Amino acid sequence: MALGGDGGRRNTTALIVRVSASFLFCFSAANQPCTNRKSSSPLVHLASSAVFPLQGNVYPLGYYSLSLNIGLPAKIFELDIDSGSDLTQPREHLYRPNINLLQCEDLLCTVDDQCDYEVKYADHGSSLGVLVKEYFPLKFTNGSLLSPHLAFGCGYDQKYFGLVTPATAGVIGLGNGKVSIVPQLSHLGLTRNVVGHCLSGQGGGFLCFGADLVPSSGVIWTSMPPNSMGKWYTSGPAELVFGGKATSVKGLNMIFDSGSSYTYFNSQAYQATVTLVRNDLEGKPLKDATEDQSLPICWKGIKPFKFVRDAKNYFKPLALSFTNAKNVQLQLSPEAYLIVTKHGNVCLGILNGTEVGLGNLNIIGDITLQDKMLIYDNENRQIEWAPANCNKLPKSRTVAIIAR
Prior knowledge:
InterPro entries: Aspartic_peptidase_A1, PEPTIDASE_A1, Peptidase_aspartic_dom_sf, TAXi_C, TAXi_N. Pfam families: TAXi_C, TAXi_N. This protein is mainly β. The chain has three helices and 27 strands. Strand 2 and strand 3 form a beta hairpin.
């Protein structure tokens, strides 16, 4: 069963995460495996990158999206970026297949006849559909304009949590499964099997397929465990650091998920975090704002806040210290775990994952990923990050084209 769902991205009051579809189930009426076929050699070897500007924010929208061209002639789809999902899928009725269903001979499918999928989400949403192949017109950083033929999901029966249709036209899966967009581009020799995103705390940012925009210095990284869960981007165990001091919150295996607006801890870790924050606020001029339902825990000051920076001096920085590597920490400044609502209150953007059906899973969501260049390096099995100005696209380090 896949985890997550579109519900976590609809608004900031819905306490649902979309860790999203990470397992793809293909089946046919006969449900019989097809004969294995040898992989064909990639036709083109460019090893460049494709870069996309992003729209959106953590609050009040609750998602970051890109505009992607699909088909010839191209139609533009605004898709929610989701590193917790492999499958790219526009919402039903927005894309109509035209004799381009994925068949058995395609290596992305392992069944007879057409390749169907079923995805179930933790917010009780679901999607049934078929895999199709379509042209994706892309502009690469080396100046090439190409339209690779890529597989994605075409849903014909999609259910959403609370029956609310998501704001975007669908989801672009950035996971590391073979049906994900970037591994397909890598197989064709068009990019490295690397995904990077930079989410601006002021809104917007950029996304990169390939390694051209990976910073040449200042990058911190942690390895993805060999037994990492499913196809998610997971870290080794981490310990929560509060105000520079170690805490009792340990052993947190984190999933990096740009498909989740907020960061989620399991119930035990969440309660311990809330206690640390509340105890540290004693004697400070903040009061509980229980009337503000934007998030579960909010505070009001002497006067309304306009930005997180107005309230940040009341809160200590957090960090996640990864215990499988020496001196490797993901820093969480107050901007990385707080929001200011339309009511002028400051709210905790770390939520109780167990309460919303995530069990013992722990999620690093958009709020914590802001103003950092995040790199998912599937070739070296590493998750990397560095502080970055996500409002400005860095210069590409593209090398010369190598084509066949």
